[in-house]
Amino acid sequence: MDNAKQLVGRVHGVNVTDNTAAVVRAGSLPVCRVLYEMGHDPVMQLTCRDRNRIAMQSDLLGGHILGIRNILCLTGDYPTVGDHKEAKPVYDLDSVQVMQLVKGLNDGHDMAGNKLDGSTAFTIGAAATPEADLVGPMLAKFEVKVKAGAQFFQTQAVYNPDVFASFMKAVRPYKVKVLAGILLLRNAKMAEFMNANIPGMSVPQDMIDALRAAGDKSEDVGVEIAVQTINAVRPHCDGVHIMAIKGIHRIGEILKKAHLE
């Protein structure tokens, strides 16, 4: 919350994750409300893993009552990824169906076709992976999400600006906003882990070498990489989504160095 207070008025939105990596955390909805009261415009993430369609619609209606207007629809990591490996996954809907569900609420009806007393006014978000190995299927899925109601996309972390530029050229015909993912690399071990375990993630070897050579100052190098990447991708996209895992205190510095405020 202290870090969030320092960012009021300096960013356009703040993402609140939904039990990332299938690890129990405070719910996205109440944290979104706290940030809203602080002066932020929160983005409530909603995954398919833990709720059926009834619970999702209930949380969405509740979120709208509490002033939440941005929803990012995600599949969600499978429970075996997290620390409650025996948890039963729900996956009643997939992320595209959730977008259709939210669009329905915006149109004044629930998923069963029941008419609401009014309608919601959510902006619908989706995820994309610009550096996917199989570009064709990725672009096809992008189009499906647009047709389902997606109005903005947040991408997986970008480390190859040229590849990202090609991705943006391919998706520009769609009337949606795209925010490039900027993930702060804290050290070489983190970068190598992501390359090995996260699909669509490709941190170049020269960046990994620079992080390793920096030793105890590796996070400083990570900040510079983030700034350089932001400067490289900004001409092609509508904004950036800065992800600073265990490094939220560095976001203000990144904003200044990248001239984002």
Q: Can you walk through the features of this model?
A:
- There is one protein chain.
- With 261 residues, the protein is an alpha/beta fold.
- The chain has one domain: TIM Barrel, CATH 3.20.20.220.
- It contains ten helices and seven strands.
- The protein has helices at 2-6, 28-38, 53-65, 95-106, 135-148, 161-171, 188-197, 205-213, 218-233, 251-257, and strands at 14-16, 42-47, 70-74, 123-128, 152-157, 177-183, 239-243.
- A seven-stranded parallel beta sheet has the order 1-2-3-4-5-6-7, covered by helices on one side.
- It is globular and about 60 Å long.
CATH fold description? TIM Barrel
Examine the secondary-structure arrangement and name the CATH architecture: Alpha-Beta Barrel
Tally of alpha and pi helices: 10
What is the percentage of strand-forming residues? 5-15%
Overall average pLDDT = 95
CATH class wording: Alpha Beta
List the helices and strands and how they pair.
Blueprint: H1 2-6, E1 14-16, H2 28-38, E2 42-47, H3 53-65, E3 70-74, H4 95-106, E4 123-128, H5 135-148, E5 152-157, H6 161-171, E6 177-183, H7 188-197, H8 205-213, H9 218-233, E7 239-243, H10 251-257
Parallel strand pairs: 1-2, 2-3, 3-4, 4-5, 5-6, 6-7
Helix pairs in contact: 3-4, 7-8, 8-9, 9-10
Please give a quick description of this structure.
By secondary structure, the protein is of the alpha/beta class. The chain is built from ten helices and seven strands.
